[in-house]
């Protein structure tokens, strides 16, 4: 299936590392003008070195006002990938206010805020658009020590559906992808212990974690006009984990 984004502009959050970085590069390869947003300047420097057509924006997306300022001149955006997120592991009874607030600020609040900024432009131009929120299998199942992360991704799933409902009339589609474990920096943080990872892979019918490209390809499909009638879904990229 040939996917082209020639003539389209895309914005990817959390584009410095992992899935976001690979998504930004894939979109550029497919012809999109890409704006890459993340908070570590050295990641943006190396990304632009790798793909000079990418426009970098450095901002901490947990900061509402800084995000407004950083994105005020982004111009026309047709495709948005809300990918930035953080995780920190702790038993439920040890979760602190700070861990909760930091996680929800990035994983949920920034999805709402960046989408507002981008969707207002899409609505004003009347040209429609496609938004993909990167959620997780953790939105739909309990994972030990992941209370805050699971709750934040559950919120992303529901937010995705409300956005799809309210933005659909403007031909703005909003969907989520829900990957299983991917061995990025975030994946290593939670799943590098072989005992733990073996237990998880044994619950995945395909018997393996997802590769970054498995997730990127699904995001590209949902952004593209090949999925023109798909709106408001949370699509597992999990080898069947959530089916069991
Ligand atoms: P990584 O940790 O590898 O990359 C996350 C990126 O987001 C980094 O570039 C990071 O920048 C950026 N980011 C984090 N916080 C902020 C912030 N406040 N402002 C701006 N940028 C920020 O994560 P993955 O690539 O693994 O994850 C990408 C998405 O996929 C996330 O939404 C995650 O929840 C989801 N996911 C991941 C899975 C996995 O196993 N890896 C499984 C299921 C879903 P910096 O490094 O500078 O903080």
Overview of this structure, please?
GO terms for molecular function: carbonyl reductase (NADPH) activity; L-xylulose reductase (NADPH) activity. This is Ketoreductase domain-containing protein. With 244 residues, this protein is α/β, with parallel strands linked by helices. It has one domain: NAD(P)-binding Rossmann-like Domain (Rossmann fold), CATH 3.40.50. It is built from eight helices and seven strands. It has helices spanning 18-29, 41-50, 64-70, 97-125, 147-167, 185-191, 194-201, 212-223, and strands spanning 9-13, 33-38, 55-58, 79-82, 129-134, 172-179, 234-237. Strands 3-2-1-4-5-6-7 form a seven-stranded parallel beta sheet, sandwiched between helices. Helix 1 (18-29) crosses helix 8 and helix 4 (97-125) packs parallel to helix 5 (147-167). It is globular. The model has no long low-confidence stretch (mean pLDDT 97). NADPH dihydro-nicotinamide-adenine-dinucleotide phosphate binds at residues 14, 16-20, 38-40, 43, 60-62, 83-86, 106, 134, 136, 179, 181-182, 184-187.
Name the features.
single chain, 244 residues, alpha/beta, Rossmann fold, 43% helix, binds NADPH dihydro-nicotinamide-adenine-dinucleotide phosphate
Name the average pLDDT. Answer: 97
Q: Segments where pLDDT lies below 50 for 5+ residues? A: none
| Number of helical stretches of at least 4 residues | 8
Major sheet description: 7 strands, parallel
CATH A-level architecture: 3-Layer(aba) Sandwich
The ordered H/E elements are EHEHEHEHEHEHHHE
**Strand order, sheet with most strands:** 3-2-1-4-5-6-7
State which percent range the strand residues make up: 15-25%
- Rounded Rg: 17 Å
Number of strands: 7
The fold-level CATH name is Rossmann fold
């Amino acid at each position: 299936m040939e996917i082209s984004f020639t003539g389209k502009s895309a914005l990817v959050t959390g584009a410095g590392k992992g899935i976001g970085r690979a998504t930004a590069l894939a979109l550029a390869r497919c012809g999109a003008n890409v704006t890459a947003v993340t908070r570590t300047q050295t990641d943006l420097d190396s990304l632009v070195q790798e793909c000079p057509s990418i426009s970098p924006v450095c901002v901490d997306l947990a900061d509402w006002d800084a995000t407004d300022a950083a994105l005020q001149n982004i111009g026309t955006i047709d495709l948005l990938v809300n990918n930035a997120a953080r995780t920190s592991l702790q038993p439920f009874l040890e979760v602190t206010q700070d861990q909760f607030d930091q996680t929800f600020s990035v994983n949920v609040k920034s999805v709402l805020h960046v989408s507002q900024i981008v969707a207002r432009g899409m609505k004003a131009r009347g040209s429609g658009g496609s938004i993909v929120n990167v959620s997780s299998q953790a939105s739909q199942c309990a994972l030990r020590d992941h209370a805050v992360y699971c709750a934040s991704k559950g919120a992303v799933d529901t937010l995705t559906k409300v956005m799809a409902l309210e933005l659909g009339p403007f031909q703005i589609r909003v969907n989520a992808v829900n990957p299983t474990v991917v061995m990025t920096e975030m994946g290593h943080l939670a799943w590098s212990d072989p005992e733990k990872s073996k237990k998880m892979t044994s619950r995945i019918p395909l018997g393996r974690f997802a590769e970054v490209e498995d997730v990127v390809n699904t995001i590209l499909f949902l952004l593209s006009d090949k999925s023109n009638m798909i709106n408001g879904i949370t699509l597992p990229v999990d080898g069947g984990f959530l089916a069991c």
